[in-house]
Amino acid sequence: MAWLILLLAGILEVGWAVGLKVSHGLTRPWPAAATIVAMIASMALLALAVRTLPLGTAYAVWTGIGAVGTVLLGMALFGESASPVRLFCIGLILAGIVGLRLTEPGA
């Protein structure tokens, strides 16, 4: 269950990161409010996940999900570069996330 909570926390991290762009740096009220709610919810779920999961693993996976998701949405929504080097680096982050999950005791 902690891994599912951590996954949701990571997805919400993607949401608030994209929300920073959509809200123009928290200057548009409704997108800013949604961004702040996503930030709080993401941190709260991360806090729940680290009750069970090791801190270092949970934090690395959370930030990895956030980084990969944010880069992919940046490409899809904002026309950011999808160069082969960027895609390769995303693959490296994903490999790290999977590796941390697979090396966790009881995985």
Average per-residue pLDDT, rounded, comes to 95
Task: Give, in order, the helices and strands.
Answer: HHHH
User: Which shape, going by the Cα principal axes?
Assistant: flat
Describe the sheet with the most strands. Answer: none
Low-confidence stretches: none
Taken as a percent bin, the fraction of beta residues is: under 5%
Indicate the structural class: mainly alpha
The helical percent reads over 70%
Total separate domains: 1
Structural notes for this entry:
- This protein has 107 residues and is mainly α.
- It is built from 4 helices and no strands.
- Helix 1 runs parallel beside helix 3 (55-78) and helix 3 packs antiparallel against helix 4 (84-102).
- The longest helix is centred in the middle third of the chain and has 24 residues, at 55-78.
- The mean pLDDT is 95.
